[in-house]
């Protein structure tokens, strides 16, 4: 009888422990959701959309805010990190992908092959993009569509020109006076591959033009 009572007590202790753990998880989820802006994870009204764009780049044409982010970002914006989509995705298609919480990925902006700009994480918030929380906390991250799959991972002229426009706009609004590409993470222009050795992102084509992008953005910022 004593043995049965001990077993019964152990079962209740296990159940109590499980309930406590489940309660802690639910509390953490609640706290996380309570910090998440109510504009995240849903279609916005025209008024809401205009307000969101007003806080971010005026070049934005599409908005769908991802839950895969830290609210707010953990540091001051000092950098821009460029990625490629590894595909010719639409802004809407990428928004659907970033909306999936189990994917645990996002970017602040994306540019499609027509040169349209999409916003997925507001600049005041931190995207989950480069596998480096330290970099993401300081960087505005930008995904660029590819019009060539594989090879050089080429991007269209329209996407490339809009990338320069967007980089200049982000720098200007955030007080970045010069965009510097150093080839490593110390520059103010960084690449996904600098933080994750298993990727070539943003691909050879964009990587070969980083010096040119930095120089043109800086020229626009300084008026030289």
Write the layout of secondary structure elements.
Elements: H1 2-35, H2 46-54, E1 60-63, E2 69-70, E3 79-84, H3 91-98, E4 109-111, E5 117-119, E6 126-127, H4 133-138, E7 139-144, H5 157-173, E8 189-191, H6 203-208, H7 210-222
Parallel strand pairs: 1-5, 3-7, 3-8, 4-7
Antiparallel strand pairs: 2-6, 4-5
Helix pairs in contact: 5-7
| Straight-line N-to-C gap | 90 Å
Largest sheet properties: 6 strands, mixed
Strand order of the largest sheet: 1-5-4-7-3-8
Give the overall shape, derived from the CA principal axes: globular
Strand content: 5-15%
Number of strands: 8
Task: List SSEs in N-to-C order.
Answer: HHEEEHEEEHEHEHH
Structural class: alpha/beta
Rg is 22 Å
Mean pLDDT: 89
Which regions contain 5 or more consecutive residues with pLDDT less than 50? 21-34
How would you describe the overall organization of this protein?
With 224 residues, the protein is of the alpha/beta class. Helices cover 42% and strands 13% of the residues. It is built from seven helices and eight strands, in the order H-H-E-E-E-H-E-E-E-H-E-H-E-H-H. The strands form two sheets. It has a six-stranded mixed sheet with strand order 1-5-4-7-3-8, with helices on both faces. A two-stranded antiparallel ribbon has the order 2-6. Strand 4 and strand 5 form a beta hairpin. Helix 5 (157-173) packs across helix 7 (210-222). The longest helix is centred in the first third of the chain and has 34 residues, at 2-35. The N and C termini lie far apart (90 Å).
């Amino acid at each position: 009888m004593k043995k049965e009572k001990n077993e019964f007590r152990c079962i209740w202790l296990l159940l109590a422990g499980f309930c406590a753990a489940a309660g802690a998880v639910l509390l953490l989820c609640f706290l996380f959701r309570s910090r998440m802006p109510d504009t995240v994870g849903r279609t916005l009204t025209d008024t809401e959309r205009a307000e969101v764009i007003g806080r971010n780049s005026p070049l934005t044409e599409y908005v769908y805010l991802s839950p895969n982010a830290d609210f707010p970002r953990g540091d001051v914006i000092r950098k821009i990190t460029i990625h490629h989509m590894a595909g010719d995705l639409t802004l809407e298609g990428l928004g659907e992908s970033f909306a999936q919480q189990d994917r645990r990925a996002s970017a602040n902006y994306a540019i499609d092959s027509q040169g349209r700009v999409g916003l997925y994480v507001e600049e005041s918030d931190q995207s989950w993009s480069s596998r480096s929380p330290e970099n993401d906390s300081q960087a505005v991250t930008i995904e660029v569509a590819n019009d060539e799959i594989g090879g050089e991972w080429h991007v269209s002229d329209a996407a490339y020109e809009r990338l320069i426009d967007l980089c200049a706009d982000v720098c200007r609004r955030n007080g970045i006076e010069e965009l510097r590409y150093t080839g490593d993470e110390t520059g103010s222009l960084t690449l996904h591959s600098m933080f994750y050795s298993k990727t070539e992102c943003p691909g050879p084509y964009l990587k070969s033009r980083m010096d040119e992008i930095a120089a043109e953005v800086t020229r626009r910022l300084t008026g030289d």
